[in-house]
Design a protein that fits this description.
The complex is a heterodimer.
Chain A lengths: L17 H20 L5 H31 L3 H38 L8 E9 L9 E4 L12 E3 L4 E8 L4 E5 L6 E6 L5 E6 L6 E3 L13 E4 L11 E9 L8 E6 L8 E7 L16
Chain B lengths: L5 H15 L4 H4 L5 H12 L6 H15 L5 H22 L2 H26 L7 H23 L1 H4 L2
Classes of the chains: A alpha+beta, B mainly alpha.
């Protein structure tokens, strides 16, 4: 820190020329970009710096968490009772469905055993909260409040109550960054629930649209078809809803049909997401042991 | 080595916070580049200690917080820092309107470098939205520099 006042305002610069420093730092930046683009080479640096900037994330998020807390605390008795009744109803409904589900799952496992195929892998979930942090406006990213300390890992699938949201791109110690399925650089392996046709759903950059560009004109696909994860990439657990087909254009002049789908998950709403552990990451489903490592 | 004064880091904190502020999507393209503005301010008023190196650090922090390619903002910010340090004697004596114009040029360069990096990496090519951020950034410059000068008048008096 400067001690005398004339040190505060140098009229002419001293020391090594800024031109040299500029060149060195430019080279350093380009080197970093190359290393980062090849992935995984700069993860520890990113993790260390992210811990330093973590307080700012919390600070930015604070008005939103405070607002939620206030509205919860000051909620009137009748509002709370109404909500309580609604939730009770919902639980009753869902428990009813779960009863059926257990019987179906048992039956499914028996059938799979009969066909000598691997049993479905058990899954473990953890609820995480989305931080209100604005990232690059041209990317579909988000930050969640669970990180590698909670066991999150790169490539982990993220769901919400309605479907697949995306996957973690960088698990930092205290928080994680995730890419949404609608990001233009993201592709989700899916299958059509009705007939099992496999394809890939690409992000479009529009939070309400997915594109399915690799379907020939003759494919059996209709408006309203549900797309579920096929689990083939090894990143997403199989069988979770990804989107619903909302447009099928078959142009005889083109080889492929123009198919778009609307994501099932509420990508632009909601605060809670689910992190899913299933089997071991990056391995084929059939080689996985029945119980996940915890 | 002469490190930037603590006031630089102190003003960088709010700038990074403002850059992360959650805004509705249509507004978020309008969010001026607060960090770049603060870097320009310090490079202009204190070029001896907050020049290229400080700009690089600020850009790297922004990269980490935004989750963008590590080094992209750092490179763009370094270019801005270097230009400012090179031209600070001239820009300082400009009237405020011309100063805002010079800042707009700097922000233009900043976005050009970012655009260029994204083009090489193959990211989504954003449209004309960046122009809005540049114009709004130049307009923000006028109150922002007045505010920062009033915060630390002893350091940055001219």
């Amino acid at each position: 820190m400067a001690t005398s006042s004339n040190q505060y305002r140098p009229l002419l610069l001293q020391g090594p020329s800024p031109g040299l420093r500029f060149l060195l730092l430019c080279v350093a930046s380009i080197l970093l970009m190359v290393l980062d683009h090849q992935q995984h080479h700069t993860r520890s640096l990113r993790a260390a710096l992210s811990v330093a900037t973590y307080p700012l994330q919390v600070l930015v998020n604070m008005p939103y968490s405070a607002g939620a807390w206030i509205s919860e605390t000051l909620g009137t008795r009748s509002d709370l009772m109404e909500e309580n009744a609604r939730l009770r109803n919902q639980i009753l409904n869902q428990q009813f469905q779960v009863q059926k589900l257990e019987a179906l799952q048992a039956e499914n496992n028996r059938l799979r055993e009969m066909m000598r195929s691997a049993a479905e892998v058990a899954e473990r979930i953890l609820v995480a909260e989305i931080r209100s942090v604005d990232l690059d406006p041209y990317r579909h990213n988000l930050v969640i409040n669970k990180g590698s300390r909670d066991g999150a890992y790169n490539g982990q699938a993220i769901l919400d109550a309605y479907g697949v949201i995306g996957q973690i791109t960088s698990a930092e110690p205290l928080s994680s960054r995730a890419i949404l399925i609608t990001d233009p650089s993201h592709a989700t392996p899916v299958e059509i629930n009705r007939n099992g046709i496999r394809t890939v759903a690409l992000g479009s950059g529009d939070p309400a649209e997915l594109r399915l560009p690799f379907l020939p004109n003759s494919t059996d696909i209709q408006v309203g078809d549900l797309l579920v994860t096929s689990g083939l990439g090894g990143h997403f657990p199989p069988g979770y809803p990804v989107g619903v087909v909302n447009e099928v254009l078959r142009d005889p002049g083109k080889n492929f049909a123009t198919v778009t789908a609307r994501p099932s998950a509420q990508l632009d709403r909601g605060r809670q997401v689910l992190l899913v552990w299933f089997g071991t990451p990056r391995s084929s489903q059939d080689l996985v042991e029945p119980e996940p490592e915890t | 080595m002469r490190l930037p004064p603590w006031q630089f880091w102190l003003s960088l904190g709010p700038a990074l916070t403002l850059a992360l502020l959650p805004l509705p999507p249509w507004l978020s393209a309008w969010n001026p580049d607060w960090v770049a503005l603060v870097v320009i301010f310090w490079a202009l008023n204190y070029p001896g200690r907050t020049g290229v190196g400080a700009a690089w650090c600020a850009g790297l922090l922004l990269d980490v917080m935004q989750g963008s390619l590590l080094g992209a903002h750092a490179l763009a910010m370094t270019v801005v820092g270097y230009l400012t340090v090179k031209l600070y004697l001239r820009i300082r004596v400009f009237p405020l309107s011309q100063q805002a114009l010079a800042v707009a040029m700097m922000l233009g360069t900043y976005h050009f470098v970012l655009f260029w990096v994204e083009g090489i990496v193959g990211g989504p090519a954003p449209g004309l939205d960046r122009g809005l951020a540049i114009v709004l950034g130049a307009l923000t410059w006028v109150p922002l520099q007045a505010f920062l000068k009033s915060m630390w008048p002893r350091i940055v008096k001219d």
